[in-house]
Write a structure and sequence with these properties.
Elements: H1 16-28, H2 33-41, H3 49-70, E1 77-87, E2 90-99, E3 104-110, H4 115-129, E4 135-138, H5 142-151, E5 156-159, H6 165-169, H7 172-180, H8 187-203, H9 212-230, H10 232-235
Parallel strand pairs: 1-4, 4-5
Antiparallel strand pairs: 1-2, 2-3
Keywords: DNA recombination, DNA-binding, Transposition
Protein name: Putative transposase
InterPro entries: DDE_dom (IPR032874), IS_Transposase (IPR052183), Transpos_IS6 (IPR047930)
Length: 236
């Protein structure tokens, strides 16, 4: 007897395994919906690219929220950085915070690069993390110091460009996705996509200086978490 389908996938023609696999491909790798469509077709699964896009919209954020709750506690140092992105011909700023291990803590797409924008990021971080960091590391943008004095006055603040390579390098996957997607269409789309993308990347991230055995164990754990959050086991 076939097990009952999980309520999350009710009224969907395709099984949970196919939906979760398509969503994983889309957010884990720099693939467009059309590329995911072709990869599924190679396995005999005929799904349109629009269906892949709708699955990503419907399920992605829910999966990302559950991944965040299952990840180990982040480090106590916050590396903050901002990078310019062009959306519909307008300049926007992608603000990102990572910990000392390279785990993305949060992102915020804003139209400004000033103290108010930096303050919004810090307040969002405090709300998500539940406590201030031990140290905050940024480049020499004065907006960070002004925002820190208001939001986290007691936190140590180090400002030096060479100390912030970890945050600057975290923008590279975004640049790759930006090229595949032929730029983001709106600030809201960028915020939604990157909020999901970064959590999936956190789950499957391979830390530096990890040997093969440790990497395989971490990868097996990541796949088990993905199975749990997508409810594939119960819906199989």
């Amino acid at each position: 007897m076939k097990p009952p389908r999980h309520a999350r996938y009710a009224r969907h023609r395709f099984p949970a395994e196919v939906i979760s696999y398509a969503v994983w491909l889309y957010f884990r790798f720099p693939l467009s919906p059309r590329m995911v469509e072709e990869m599924l077709a190679a396995r005999g699964i005929l799904v349109s690219h629009e269906t892949v896009r709708q699955w990503a919209l419907k399920f992605g954020q829910s999966f990302a929220n559950q991944i965040r709750r299952r990840l180990p506690a982040p480090g106590d140092k916050w590396h903050l950085d901002e990078v310019v992105i062009r959306i519909a011909g307008q300049k926007h700023w992608l603000w990102r915070a990572v910990d000392q291990h390279g785990v993305v803590l949060d992102i915020l797409v804003q139209s400004r690069r000033n103290a108010k924008a930096a303050e919004r990021l810090l307040r969002k971080l405090l709300k998500k993390q539940g406590a201030a960091s031990r140290a905050m590391i940024t480049d020499k943008l004065a907006s960070y110091a002004a925002a820190k004095r208001v939001v986290m006055p007691g936190v140590e603040h180090r400002q030096h460009r060479s100390l912030n390579n970890r945050a600057e390098n975290s923008h590279q996957p975004t640049r790759r996705r930006e090229r595949i997607m032929k730029r983001f269409k709106s600030a809201g789309q960028a915020q939604r996509f990157l909020s999901i993308h970064d959590q999936v990347a956190n789950l499957f991230r391979r830390p530096a200086n990890t040997n093969a055995a440790d990497h395989r164990r971490a990868r097996a754990w990541a796949f088990q978490v993905w199975t749990d959050v997508t409810c594939v086991a119960s819906a199989a």
